[in-house]
Structure formats: structure tokens, C-alpha cells
Task: inverse folding
């Protein structure tokens, strides 16, 4: 035991002695003048190499082939040297999904000379580099030169790279083929060359999206690319990992939620896909169809297109919601939409109506859209008001529109409010005497002092001007000729209310249901 202890102590002593000797040697070398000279020489050499690389990058950007050759002939720089290049848009970079990236924006990327030439359209210099043996399929920052050429829509460089053996189906670090990087109108020529060289038109990305090039073109809304891919055999109903078809992708991305605008290019893409027999009733992993997505965007153009193509207006998602319920959720969130057309389309195509006891939810969502309420109300033969109707309308509605007009499609002043019921009746009489109109007057929120008089006076002139009274809230609803106009098909939809006073608790009768409401099925909200 003592021998082991002595051996351990001896080892420690030797180790400490050697460490002290090494430190003394290092200190002596630092005090030696020749050491300082070596460090200075190394620093100046690194500085010269850095300056040479910067000069090389500038010559590549300027497409100065002569200067590039001159630098390479010095032998101080290899033709495949990796350079640090300004790349704020990350054109040169591709990262595998799941990799950690810093929170700040990366301003520089790694690239070889051939990548820089492609990025800056230096075709002559790129040809010189390829003739000198530059590597054509390397990925210093996740992309080959061919990926970069497709992303910047440089068809000349694409042709040059393909002629020198670039791999047409090579995947970037993020799992995308060159065809996936064709995402603009200007890249159509690039896509044509790739397809002619054998690019796989239905190749899915090797990541957690598994999109085909058709999905990518549909997402970015490029009709020319979509038409090209379809003409060369792209699968119109291909699904990605979320079970989304290109049609679903185009429908979803047709609406810019930030700018609140709709893309006509995406509409054209959807038309192309439907013309090539895209199935509008396919469901993604949450059982949503393309019609659900169009309803969520409140896009009446796409809804009309899909319904004409056979989309099922009663299809339910995984939560049991139909497209009309998606509309209810976003009606007040789409200021540039025309929601009444969306509701009318669904009802015209036999969508299930809202369950009458849940009708207050429609008033809650659409109290600022009386045309929507009008169209939905017209889909019922009888609709019994409940106390929830009044509670569904926010208090500010009563304060802002106290005894005022709710809707005036004839262009008559719809922002006028009245302090007294007599003024309101005078306005009704004025409109009724100059046009053929219908009014629905909600009276329960009027002051008690004038409610009786108002009801009595209105009931007296009800049959003259075809007025319907509903005991819910203070609204005047001008309804031109008692008919709604179907702006999609340009056909008039009947709105046959009876001209009679409706007492508290009674339903609003109709003479006959319109042609789009023959069903008696209702949808529970």
C-alpha cells in the first residue's frame, strides 16, 4: 500500500516539474525577438490572403474573366477555394430542417467562385472557371450552383451548368431539388431545361414537407409553371406529408392575411388544376377540403369555382365543421371580402343551414353585415326569434344605430339616425313613396315611451309598404323589391316574406322558400 502511495506521489511530482518546464520554455520563446518576427510574418501573410480573396470576389461579381485568370495564375488561390460572400437574402445558403440557427439575420454565406458567378450572372467568367476544372456539384453552404441558378432564375447559367454535367436531381441540404427552386415566372425557362435533361417532375422534397414541384408552383401562384408541370405529367392530386393536394395549397395561399388581398394568379392556378381533373373533395389530415380553405379566406371567387367543380358544401372537418361554419368564424375578419356572396353560394349549392336555435351565433358574428343575415334568414320557411338574438348583438350597435337604417341598397342615406320614432316613420314613408322597398324593423330596443306609438304606426302602414316587424332590436332593413340578387349567377333569389306584423315570440312567415333552400337540414353551430 505504501509503495502505491509513493508511486502516485512521484508521478505527481514529475507531472508538475514537466509543466513548469513547459511554461518556462514558452515564456523564453515569447521574449525571443525571432518569435515576434514569426507572428508578424504570419499575420501579414493572412492579411494578404484575405485581401486577395476580396479582390477575387470583386472580379467574379464584375464578370472580369481576365482578372480572375490572373489571380488564379499566381497560384496563391485555388479555383475551388471557399469564399465568404455577402448574402442577406440567403440565396447561397440552405439549411437542414431542425438545425439550430441564430435569432439574428445571417448576412454572409460560404460559396465557391462558380456559385458567385451564377449568383451575379457572370456567365463568361463561369465558363472560364468550368473550363479550368471548377467543381460543379459541391455545396459549401448547402446548395449546388444549379440550385442557385434556378433560385435567381438565371436560365443562361442553368444551360451552362447542365452542359458541363450538373446533377439535375441533386438535393440541397434542405432536401429540395433544383426544380423546387423554380418559383417565379422568370424561372420557367430554367424549369424547361431541367425537364428536358431528365428532372423528375413528381419528385418530393426530402424533408418534413414532402412537396412536389407542383405544390411549390401552386404555393407561389405561378400559372406558367403549373401549366408546364401539368403538361409534362405532374400528378394533379399528389399529396404532401400533410395530405394536401396542390389545389388545397393554391387555395390557402391565394389570400394574403397581412395585406388582406386576394391573388388572381392563385385563382388562375386553381382553374388550371380543376381543368386537369383535380379532385375538389380530397381531404387533408384534418379532413379539411379545398372548400374549407376557400371559406376560411372568404374568397367567393374560389368558392364558386370549387362548387361548380363538384365540391361538397356539407363536407365536415375533423371537428365536425362545415365550410359555412368557417365563414361564420372569419366574416368580421375579412374587410375586403364580400361575405354575402359566400353564404349565398353555399346555400345555393345545398349547404346545410344553421340550426335555428343557434341562429344567434350568426347575429353575433355578422351583426355588421346585414346582407349576410338577410340571405341566411331567407333560407328558412319559419324562424322563431329568441331572447338570445338580442343578447348576441353588442351594446355599441344599439348606441351607434339607435333607430337608424341598417341597410340601404338604393343609395338613400344609410348613416342617418333618428332620435324619435316619428322621424324614423317619416323616413320610411319617404323611401316607400319613391321606390318599391321592403323593411324589416326591429323594435324591442326602442324607449318604452315611443315603442307603443311606433308599433301602432308601423302596423298601420305595414301593408302599404310591405313592412315586417321583428321584436328583437332597433334596425330598419331596406330590402329592394322583396328580392335578393344572386350576383354570381345573375339570377334572382325569391325572398317572399308576408307583409304582416309579427308579434312578440312569433316566427317570421314566408310565402314560399327560394329555389336554393329546398332542404330542411340544419347545421348545429
Result:
Amino acid at each position: 500500500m505504501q509503495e502505491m502511495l509513493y508511486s502516485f506521489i512521484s508521478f505527481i511530482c514529475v507531472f508538475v516539474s514537466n509543466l513548469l518546464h513547459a511554461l518556462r520554455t514558452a515564456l523564453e520563446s515569447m521574449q525571443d525577438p525571432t518569435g515576434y518576427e514569426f507572428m508578424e510574418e504570419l499575420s501579414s501573410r493572412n492579411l494578404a490572403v484575405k485581401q486577395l480573396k476580396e479582390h477575387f470576389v470583386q472580379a467574379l461579381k464584375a464578370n472580369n474573366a481576365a482578372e480572375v485568370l490572373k489571380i488564379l495564375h499566381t497560384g496563391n488561390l485555388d479555383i475551388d477555394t471557399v469564399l465568404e460572400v455577402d448574402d442577406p437574402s440567403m440565396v447561397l445558403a440552405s439549411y437542414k430542417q431542425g438545425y439550430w440557427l441564430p435569432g439574428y439575420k445571417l448576412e454572409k454565406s460560404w460559396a465557391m467562385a462558380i456559385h458567385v458567378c451564377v449568383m451575379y450572372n457572370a456567365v463568361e467568367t463561369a465558363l472560364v472557371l468550368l473550363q479550368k476544372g471548377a467543381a460543379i456539384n459541391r455545396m459549401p453552404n448547402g446548395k449546388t450552383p444549379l440550385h442557385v441558378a434556378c433560385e435567381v432564375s438565371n436560365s443562361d447559367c442553368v444551360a451552362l451548368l447542365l452542359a458541363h454535367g450538373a446533377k439535375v436531381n441533386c438535393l440541397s441540404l434542405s432536401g429540395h431539388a433544383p426544380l423546387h427552386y423554380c418559383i417565379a415566372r422568370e424561372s420557367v425557362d430554367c424549369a424547361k431545361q431541367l425537364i428536358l435533361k431528365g428532372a423528375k417532375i413528381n419528385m418530393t422534397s426530402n424533408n418534413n414537407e414532402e412537396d412536389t414541384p407542383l405544390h411549390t408552383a401552386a404555393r407561389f401562384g405561378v400559372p406558367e409553371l403549373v401549366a408546364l408541370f401539368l403538361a409534362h405529367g405532374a400528378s394533379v392530386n399528389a399529396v404532401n406529408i400533410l395530405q394536401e393536394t396542390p389545389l388545397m395549397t393554391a387555395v390557402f395561399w391565394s389570400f394574403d392575411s397581412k395585406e388582406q388581398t386576394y391573388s388572381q394568379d392563385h385563382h388562375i392556378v386553381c382553374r388550371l388544376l380543376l381543368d386537369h381533373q383535380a379532385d375538389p373533395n380530397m381531404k387533408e389530415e384534418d379532413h379539411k377540403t379545398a372548400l374549407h380553405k376557400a371559406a376560411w379566406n372568404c374568397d367567393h371567387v374560389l368558392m364558386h369555382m370549387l362548387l361548380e367543380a363538384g365540391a361538397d358544401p356539407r363536407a365536415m372537418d375533423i371537428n365536425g365543421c362545415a365550410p359555412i361554419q368557417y365563414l361564420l368564424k372569419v366574416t368580421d375578419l375579412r374587410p375586403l371580402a364580400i361575405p354575402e356572396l359566400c353564404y349565398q353560394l353555399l346555400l345555393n349549392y345545398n349547404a346545410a343551414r344553421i340550426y335555428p336555435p343557434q341562429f344567434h351565433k350568426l347575429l353575433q358574428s355578422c351583426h355588421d353585415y346585414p346582407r349576410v343575415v338577410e340571405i341566411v334568414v331567407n333560407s328558412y320557411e319559419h324562424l322563431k326569434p329568441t331572447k338570445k338574438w338580442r343578447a348576441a348583438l353588442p351594446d355599441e350597435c344599439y348606441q351607434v344605430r339607435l333607430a337608424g337604417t341598417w341597410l340601404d341598397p338604393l343609395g338613400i342615406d344609410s348613416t342617418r339616425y333618428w332620435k324619435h320614432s316619428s322621424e324614423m316613420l317619416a323616413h320610411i314613408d319617404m323611401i316607400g313613396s319613391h321606390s318599391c322597398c321592403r323593411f324589416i324593423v326591429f323594435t324591442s330596443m326602442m324607449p318604452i315611451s315611443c315603442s307603443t306609438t311606433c308599433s301602432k304606426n308601423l302596423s298601420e302602414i305595414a301593408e302599404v309598404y310591405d313592412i315586417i316587424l321583428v321584436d328583437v332590436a332597433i334596425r330598419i332593413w331596406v330590402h329592394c323589391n322583396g328580392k335578393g340578387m344572386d350576383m354570381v349567377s345573375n339570377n334572382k333569389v325569391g325572398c317572399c316574406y308576408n307583409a304582416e306584423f309579427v308579434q312578440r315570440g312569433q316566427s317570421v312567415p314566408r310565402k314560399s322558400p327560394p329555389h336554393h333552400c329546398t332542404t330542411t337540414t340544419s347545421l348545429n353551430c
